């Protein structure tokens, strides 16, 4: 049997790897950042140290040029430790910021909402807004309490007020603040979702879609009461979602043009004109448990 060491030496000699390696390391030594490092440590780095650490210098240049997948996410740096040149890696700030943004977007889920809704923030909501003090304070209070103890049940907010006063914007601003604390939030336009649920009957996906929504840590139902809900949507969709969240004590947010009292009247009369007082009261009982009513007032800012 051949000696493995001799065989490997033969392969190296045949392919002139030593010469090629020398060429590559010499090129690495001419790299501007390597030259700068050597100048900074010229009183400490000897020819012997350089010769003994050519592999580290070569690794640094290769990593800097992103020729290796791992290094593409990190910035390499050279350092001198006990007469040894080492390569250290630090996270690339740009890529780290991009990853953080992607992670936040995954936690800030939206359904049938405007594409720019994730840009909302509480500071912009509060600035120069007459009639928003109470809602702004309530939003800050929720974010503070929930971020400190997410295991404790804290009712969400039921934001009611006229068109254009910023109810949806405030929901989105709260959501953005929460995802900064690594909380998963789903903000959805409920009237559009109700229409989708009717269509979901055809492919038998109603239950699976409800199950995906009902258990999210923070659920925000925008524009509830904006249309006339059928008894089926009210009881078998909205009712099922709210019942689960009540049982699991999961904070839920709402926005509506109706106050809670007005929403109860709205939910009482079904699309056929029949009054279903008890069923509407059951829905409202859950909404009142899951959220705190806050009136949002002020001018219509939608057309400014």
Explain what the structure shows.
The chain is of the alpha/beta class. It has two domains: 4-91, no CATH class; 97-295, 3-Layer(aba) Sandwich (Rossmann fold), CATH 3.40.50.300. Helix content is 53%, strand content 15%. The chain has helices spanning 4-15, 17-29, 32-40, 47-52, 54-64, 93-107, 122-126, 133-148, 167-179, 190-200, 206-214, 231-248, 260-268, 277-290; strands at 74-81, 84-91, 108-111, 156-160, 185-189, 218-222, 252-256, 291-295. A six-stranded parallel beta sheet has the order 3-5-6-7-4-8. The chain has a two-stranded antiparallel sheet with strand order 1-2. It is elongated. InterPro entries: DnaA_dom, DnaI_N, P-loop_NTPase. This is Primosomal protein DnaI (Helicase loader). Keywords: ATP-binding, Helicase, Hydrolase, Nucleotide-binding.
Evaluate the radius of gyration.
Answer: 31 Å
Q: How large is the count of helical segments?
A: 14
CATH architecture descriptor name of the largest domain: 3-Layer(aba) Sandwich
- The coarse overall form would be elongated
Strand runs, count? 8
Fraction of residues in helices?
Answer: 40-55%
What would you give as the CATH superfamily of the largest domain? P-loop containing nucleotide triphosphate hydrolases
CATH topology of the largest domain: Rossmann fold
| Biggest sheet strand line-up | 3-5-6-7-4-8
SS content category? alpha/beta
Sheet with the most strands? Answer: 6 strands, parallel
Q: How far apart are the first and last residues' alpha carbons, in Å?
A: 87 Å
- Report the sheet-strand fraction: 5-15%
The domain count comes to: 2
Domain Primosomal DnaI N-terminal: 1-89
Organism: Bombilactobacillus mellis
Domain Chromosomal replication initiator protein DnaA ATPAse: 137-226
Keywords: ATP-binding, Helicase, Hydrolase, Nucleotide-binding
